[in-house]
Amino acid sequence: MKTSGIICLxxxxxxxxxxxxxxxxYSEEGRVYLFGTDDGSIFKNWIRAxxxxxxxxxxxxxxGTCDRLGRLRCTEGxxxxxxxxxxxxxxxxxxxxxxxxxxxxxxxTLNLSDSAGSMVLVWRGGPLHLLADRRPHFVGWxxxxxxxSGAGDQPLSQQELTDLGVPVTIDxxxxxxxxxxxxxxxxxxxxxxxxxxxxxxxxxxxxxxSVTLHGSDYSVDDVANMLKRFLREVKDVVFNGQENSDxxxxxxxxxxxSEKIHRYQILLSNLPEVNRNxxxxxxxxxxxxxxxxxxxxxxxxxxxxxxxxLNVSESDLxxxxxxxxDILNKHKSQRPLSRTPSSTVCAVYLEKKDEGAVVLVQxxxxxxxxxLVSVVLELKRIQQASEEFWSCYEFLxxxxxxxxxxxxxxxSVVFLLNLFIHSKCHxxxxxxx
Length: 433
What we know:
Shape: elongated
Helix content: 25-40%
Radius of gyration: 29 Å
Largest sheet: 7 strands, antiparallel
GO cellular component, one term: cytoplasm
Domain Rho-GAP: 159-357
Keywords: Membrane, Transmembrane, Transmembrane helix
Mean pLDDT: 79
GO molecular function, one term: GTPase activator activity
CATH class of the largest domain: Mainly Beta
Protein name: ArfGAP with RhoGAP domain, ankyrin repeat and PH domain 1a
CATH architecture of the largest domain: Roll
């Protein structure tokens, strides 16, 4: 085999083909050759020798260890050919005379441009068009580029990322909450509509880059609740696994404040880069599932000691305050001088009409009964079981009946039919007055 005829070298995961170390070579003619050994040093020497023989010097000198390397048909390349070297998430590309490096997790978009499988990678340096090739090496490039560009069911370090190294899912959700939720009460406390939350989470897990949030598409509560669920379900969570989470919880028990802050700083610096960036720029929850009071204490102390732990200067803090003020002022300026209220405050009684059982709830025109029940139970600190049964009724005082038209009675009947919620076997009643 002539080294000039090798168009791709692919390093396999350990043990894939029965040997500890294997790699594949793809030829110009479309043939595939598999080589294997159990000797790590021999394996590394062969990979380095082949890479040196195949890659142009400009790329080999900066490439280091590669998972996959070779040449592809590329619109932007020299004579339609580009040389590529992929190591974990870093893709180095030699197009003309210079080598460009892109982090596949930080791509702006990644698309298959036609049925043949041509790929378009858009990053800050511009678009990169990989033209479809029916030889077997191209399918492998497609697969590994898509895998290394970030996946929603992986730890934070393997998610789709922004330029600042923060998962796109977290960044876009918090941006939406900042834009539309600063004048709303109960953010992260109130529940969103479960079907909306589930659908939105599935969209982010499938391809976070393609999700755009607009004020009218999802409520702030939907987005905030989806973010909480994402942080609970993501692998290793923000604090990088249970073992590290325990270290944060132990630090919360320290009596000396300066020692505690110093310990938090050490733990923060030991986090993986993406987790640290996420924690430093957004300080989201994610240490516990909410049942452990100590976990809430850690998050609270991180927020209270934000400047000390993260070494944030007064100017940076003031800039953040100014940004928040600008958003709030923009909201106020966009409010009409007078408008018809879109919600009303009602007294809701739990189980019985008693002063201690009343809850005042702001009810919007589009509030569902499921949402109403969820809000009341949360305000009364009642944990609703997955199979629990609740009923909801509207009662009218007898003296008020004469003032109600038949049409309103009809509307009330429809409202009552929509207020019935299933779950399990409780006969508890939720009275709406």
